[in-house]
Amino acid sequence: MGPRKVAGSEGQALNIQDLIKLLRNRWMLICATTAIAVLIAVAISLLTTPLYQATTRLFVSTTTGASATEIYQGNLFSQQRVVSYTELLMGETVAQRTIEKLDLDMTAEELRGNVRASAKPDTVLIDVQVLDESPVRARDAADALSDEFVSLVRELETPEAGAKPDARVVVEQRASIPADPVYPKTSRNVTVGLVLGLLLGVGVAIIRDLLDNTVKDEETLEQITTVGVVANIPLDKSRRKEPGISFDNDHSSIAEAFREFRTNLQFLDVDNPPRVLVVTSSLPSEGKSTTALNIALALAEAEHSVVLIDGDMRRPKLDAYLNLVGSVGFSTVLTGRATLKDVLQKTRFPGLSVLTSGAIPPNPSELLGSMSAKKVLAELRANFDFVIVDSSPLLAVTDAAILAANSDGVLVIARYGETKRDQLSHAVGNLKAVGARLLGAVLTMTPVRAASSYSYSYYGPTGDERKRSSGGEKKQ
Ligand SMILES: Nc1ncnc2c1ncn2[C@@H]1O[C@H](COP(=O)(O)OP(=O)(O)O)[C@@H](O)[C@H]1O
Ligand SMILES: [Mg+2]
Questions:
Q1: How far is the centre of ligand 2, averaged over its atoms, from the C-alpha of 284 (Å)?
Q2: At 69, which CATH number?
Q3: Confidence at residue 450, expressed as pLDDT on a 0 to 100 scale
Q4: Which residues belong to any copy of the Polysaccharide chain length determinant N-terminal domain (predicted)?
């Protein structure tokens, strides 16, 4: 057995490998969230009114004697004063006096909100900062506020009129007109936006991943279907225009995936190789017809004679996919209006014959469950190496289950990121209920990026290596 996928195998917890995979697969979401957050940060910065800051520095001194002890005590006294002074600087009185002096058009409360005073520990210095929309007014306010504070201290610290004040404040450094605004802090805003955007993006990616209940890896597919994954078919946009792959000259990754699929089919049951295979899935548009057609073509490439039957009598597609006549086919034979030989069509691909579905009958389930259907399948089995049957979705109608019961086995398809886990297990239940033999599961339309990161090779490491050495991985 090849190296199993490590990620996710240790319970439900998200481990580092899962996280890396998640980030790789959801990088667009994460980038988008980050870009939006950065744009918001830039917008906020642009919308913020620029604020200028002017600074003064005050020095607090106390009247002291000449002796060392007195100087020391004076210093201590000043340091204790400093703390109260910073409070007073940011207080109502000084703000009110400053407004009156400068005749400012604001309330004391507003000015207080723009004043910061802070003392450096163990010093007698106080820094005063004043914010304002105008740099000149910021300077004027800072200077006026400092001057007003000097006189306020003089009033407060003079015990009685005419006496020497206990403490004195001088404006050690006056304010100058600030050249650049201190707000908005654009680079800080952008950094915060970047970090928050990234975190948000990763968070959303993780939540989306936890809420995602679609099939996205082979391990899940195996768990639900209880059979091995026989193919992981990449998404290939050119299949929408031309569903059939020209295997004789195509070495793209999708062609290689179908060749690997063919090899895996031959190993399914070596003693009793299944030759009549029904291809089905839970819902419409999960790639049944495209997959049935291409596995038939891949088998034909290996010199097998192959007949492809369109067993989807409700939404037949193979006639259109192969440019064949659609009006006569399976339903025509089943109603006895033509023989098999009359309606089997050769295709432009050597080795591949097709039985289209024919005119759409009113009772497909009944027709497909009839004895004549069994006979047709038996006759085709006798004449071809492989009979590949395309079918309707299992959750919509019983047709596929009926066909499956008359075949050697079923290949059940899940579409990457679309097929829901519960739908798939429902479909598998329907198959088991009619006693159909499940041969293998196919994951299809796997995005190329996810194919390289999610895939582990069921049949050993060579599968993956072959895919890479073909050089077709870059091709879409
Ligand atoms: N491997 C693939 N890569 C890209 N497109 C695909 C692939 N397989 C199928 N499709 C497209 O998906 C659509 C549904 O495919 P189809 O085979 O008709 O599904 P179903 O038979 O399950 O309804 C079609 O448009 C088809 O071209
Ligand atoms: Mg179809």
A1: 7
A2: 3.30.70.1130
A3: 58
A4: 14-102
In a domain, 11, yes or no: no
Report whether residue 284 contacts ligand 1, using a CB cutoff of 6 Å. yes
Residue 82 CB less than 6 A away from ligand 1: no
Q: Does residue 159 have a cis peptide bond before it, meaning omega lies within 30 degrees of 0?
A: no
**Burial of residue 88 (number of CB atoms within 10 Å: 0-12, 13-18, 19+):** middle
Higher pLDDT, 64 or 320: 320
What is the structure's pLDDT at 451?
53
Number of the ligand closest to the Cα of 244: 1
pLDDT tens-place string over residues 235-248:
999 999 999 999 99
What is the H or E stretch that residue 401 is in?
Answer: helix 399-405
pLDDT by residue (tens digit) across 421-440? Answer: 999 999 999 999 999 999 99
User: How far is residue 86's CA from residue 94's CA, in Å, rounded to a whole number?
Assistant: 11
β-sheet bridge partners, residue 355:
309
Tell me if 239 CB under 6 Å of ligand 1: yes
- By the 10 Å C-beta count (0-12 exposed, 13-18 middle, 19+ buried), 161 is classed as exposed
Average model confidence (pLDDT) across the chain: 89
The CATH number assigned to the domain holding 250 equals 3.40.50.300
240 close to ligand 1 (CB < 6 Angstrom): yes
Residue 318 CB less than 6 A away from ligand 1: no
Which residue's CA lies nearest to atom 9 of ligand 1? Answer: 287
**Residue owning tokens 């009772």:** 363
**Domain membership flag for residue 126:** yes
